[in-house]
Design brief:
two-stranded parallel sheet
Length: 171
C-alpha cells in the first residue's frame, strides 16, 4: 500500500473498508461454512430467491430498487437457474475453495483489457491495474453498470468487449 494515496486510491480503500465492514457477510459465510448456507438455500425456494435478490439490490446500478436495473422476469430467471439445478451449495463452495485468493491474481504480461463499472464491488484505480498488468491495452470506466454488468447493461458490455478486442485486431 502506498504511503500517500491519490484520490482514486483512497476511494478504493474506503470502498473496501465499507464492503468488509457491512457488505461481506455472504462472503464470510460461504468462505467458511459453504455447506451450511448451501443446504439451507437448497431447502427453501423463498430463501434462495431472497439471497440472490439481495445481491441484485446491493450490487446492481440501481436507484434504490433492483427493478431499476433488471426486470422481475430477468431476476426470476436467474434465481430459477440456481433453484432448478440445485446449485446453491456448489456456488457457495467456490468461495471456500478460493478463500486464500486476493483481488489480484498475480502479475500478468499478457494483453489485459479492463472496464470498471461504477457499482462494481471492487473498483481498482488504473494506477494499481498498471502495476499488476504490464500490458494493459484498454481501460475504461463505464457510466452505468454494477457487479452483474453483462446482465444489467448488455449493450455497454458488448461495446466494451468490442473496444477492447479492437486494440488487439489493430496490432
Amino acid at each position: 500500500m502506498p504511503e500517500h494515496l491519490s484520490f482514486e486510491e483512497q476511494r478504493v480503500v474506503d470502498g473496501a473498508k465499507r464492503f468488509l465492514g457491512d457488505g461481506s457477510g455472504y462472503f464470510r459465510q460461504q468462505a467458511t461454512r459453504p455447506q451450511t448456507i448451501g443446504y439451507a438455500l437448497s431447502d427453501s425456494p423463498a430463501g434462495q430467491a431472497m439471497w440472490i435478490y439481495e445481491k441484485f439490490y446491493s450490487w446492481t446500478d440501481n436507484n434504490g430498487s433492483p427493478e431499476d436495473a433488471l426486470s422481475p422476469d430477468q431476476m426470476l430467471d436467474d434465481i430459477s437457474l440456481y433453484w432448478f439445478t440445485n446449485t446453491a451449495a456448489s456456488s457457495a463452495r467456490i468461495y471456500w475453495e478460493n478463500k486464500g485468493s486476493s483481488f489480484s491474481g498475480g502479475k500478468l504480461t499478457l494483453p489485459v483489457a479492463a472496464t470498471v463499472f461504477p457499482r462494481e464491488i471492487y473498483r481498482a484505480p488504473k494506477s494499481w491495474a498498471e502495476q499488476t498488468y504490464s500490458n494493459l491495452i484498454y481501460w475504461n470506466e463505464a457510466e452505468h453498470g454494477g457487479h452483474f454488468a453483462a446482465f444489467e447493461q448488455p449493450d455497454i458490455f458488448v461495446e466494451e468487449m468490442r473496444s477492447a478486442f479492437r486494440k488487439l485486431r489493430e496490432q
